[in-house]
Amino acid sequence: MDRYLISQLIPPFLFGVGLFSSISVTVDAAFDLMRKIVESGLPASTAAQVFLLRMPEFIVLAFPMSILLATLMTYSRLSSESELVALRGCGVSVYRIAITAVLMSFLVTILAFVFNDQVAPAAKYQSTQILEQALKSDKPSFKQENIFYPEYKTLRTKENGKEKKEKILSRLFYADKFDGKRMKGLTIIDRSTEGLNQIVVSESGEWNAKENIWDFYNGTSYLVGADRSYNNIFRFEHQKVELPRTPLSLAEQSRDYGEMNIAQALEQLELERLAGDEQKIRKLKVRIQQKFSVPFVCVVFGLVGSAMGTIPQRTGRGTSFGVSVMIIFTFYLFSSIASALGIAGVLSPFLAAWLPNFVGIAIGIFLLMRVAQR
């Protein structure tokens, strides 16, 4: 029975992968590349290379959609032709019939996780680099202007007998430009030492990797006391300043969330924690959780599709495709809302990424129980 069911599931699954990934990449990438060929003179060979490198990103999204389509089409056909009735007449329960689709979904989940973490981010990043080199060969891959890096510290104070946490600015690093080697137009406000503030304005600065320190050139340092009076002002041609390397790491960081795997996203999370931007931290935490939750959608759709397919009915392939599109639209709309709530801080990053999956599993189990009681 398992071999028979899998043999029936694989053809529509492969059809769905080709269909959904082709539609997605055409809508998202193909039209944009065609516009760049016409308007910007992008070579057709480069456009084809970028198109192929973008495919893994959409194949990952097509995996769960294809599982849903395959389970709905296969189990609906078996139900309409009374094959499921025959299996149940032989003593096979609905749960046992659905297990085959769920187990296949688990295998696809593993494949989707590998694609989502190892293949798709690297391919997307490479496509971005190729596109930038083809259109603007003189554009560097690092952030060029307005490098802004704040550090915060938490103070514990008591108010009305209750302990209160207050986050205040500890250090601010700002640079006008970055040419890949030197920061230019630097302004540093250092409030990390209690009772003494320092302001450093420098023409340029670069990271000294040997000494793990910054070398600043042609600038002025101002020391401001607790009473807000200048304690000392001096000019310098070259001064070593003890600051973290984080501003340089941020300037060199050119990957967006979709171009990072889990390890790279965790490294970026550490940088964002040092900067103290809570919204960016929450957004990155949600994206990291989605690295795990998005492949697991295959299991959710496999369960829901097999449960809906086992309901006694007589539907064709067109109806199954229409139902699949409706479920996919509803699920991803719910996922987008949950993600937005997580980034806004209403939901925890874990719930923002996993809540749609939990709801989908609950619906699938409920439907299976309803069918089993008939």
Summarize the structure in words.
A 6-stranded antiparallel sheet has the order 1-2-3-4-5-6. By secondary structure, the chain is of the alpha+beta class. The chain has 9 helices and 6 strands. Helix 2 (44-80) packs across helix 8 and helix 4 (94-135) packs across helix 7 (278-309). Helices cover 61% and strands 21% of the residues. It is elongated and about 90 Å long.
Give a summary of the structure in a few sentences.
The chain has helices at residues 2-39, 44-80, 83-89, 94-135, 246-252, 262-275, 278-309, 317-344, 349-372, and strands spanning 145-159, 162-178, 183-190, 196-208, 213-225, 230-241.
List the keywords.
374 residues, alpha+beta, six-stranded antiparallel β-sheet, 9 helices, 61% helix, 21% strand
Question: Based on DSSP secondary structure assignment, what is the total number of beta strands?
Answer: 6
Give the helices and strands as they follow along the chain.
HHHHEEEEEEHHHHH
- Rg measurement, Å: 28 Å
The N- and C-terminal alpha carbons lie at a distance of 22 Å
The neighbouring-strand order within the major sheet is 1-2-3-4-5-6
- What is the arithmetic mean of pLDDT? 85
How large is the share of residues in beta strands? 15-25%
Unreliable residue runs? none
Q: Tally the helices: what do you get? A: 9
Largest beta-sheet characterization: 6 strands, antiparallel
Globular, elongated, flat, extended or rod-shaped: what is the shape? Answer: elongated
